[in-house]
Design brief:
Blueprint: E1 22-33, H1 36-44, H2 52-65, H3 67-70, E2 81-89, E3 93-104, H4 109-127, E4 135-145, E5 152-153
Antiparallel strand pairs: 1-3, 1-4, 2-3, 4-5
Helix pairs in contact: 2-4
């Protein structure tokens, strides 16, 4: 059942007024594949735009905080923690993992997914001049906890 529909079948923001405040957390990831020489340039700090991974991390954090401005019908949330980590997957990929937390009446899955996606897009944007063939893939929710719908843990896959 789609929960973003009102009694007349129109799209609407879900009313969370009567939902209990619980601790909620979500983790999402995205993978950016690139040429090995592009990744090597990023790792050695040789990119002319500076620390590409630091900029992508900041972009992901900022995006999580602005999710309700980007995704229609998302509630504006007071996040208590946003962490975006980038790790090298040898020899041609960067894995981005975003973790969002709050104590609230609705979940943070969209915030985690937005953070991972925007960090990946930022990495692409900063490196596109040297590697237009980069691919963003496997953006997905890894886990969520808290709330009425309960916990979720994605199956482990090899990306």
């Amino acid at each position: 059942m789609l929960t973003h529909l009102d009694a007349q079948g129109r799209a609407s923001m879900v009313d969370v007024t009567d939902k209990a405040v619980t601790d909620r957390e979500a983790v999402a990831e995205s993978l950016v594949r690139m040429l090995p020489q592009t990744l090597e340039m990023i790792q050695r700090g040789g990119h002319p735009k500076g620390d590409v991974m630091a900029v992508a991390r900041i972009a992901g954090i900022q995006a999580a905080k602005r999710t309700s401005d980007l995704i229609p019908l998302c509630h504006p949330l007071m996040l208590t923690s946003v962490k975006v980590e980038l790790s090298v997957e040898a020899p041609d990929a960067v894995r981005i993992q975003a973790r969002c937390k709050l104590a609230g009446q609705t979940g943070v899955e969209m915030e985690a997914l937005t953070a991972a996606s925007i960090a990946a897009l930022t990495l692409y944007d900063m490196c596109k001049a040297v590697d237009k063939g980069m691919v963003i893939e496997h953006t997905r929710l890894l886990s969520k906890s808290g709330g009425k719908s309960g916990d979720f843990q994605a199956e482990v896959t090899s990306a």
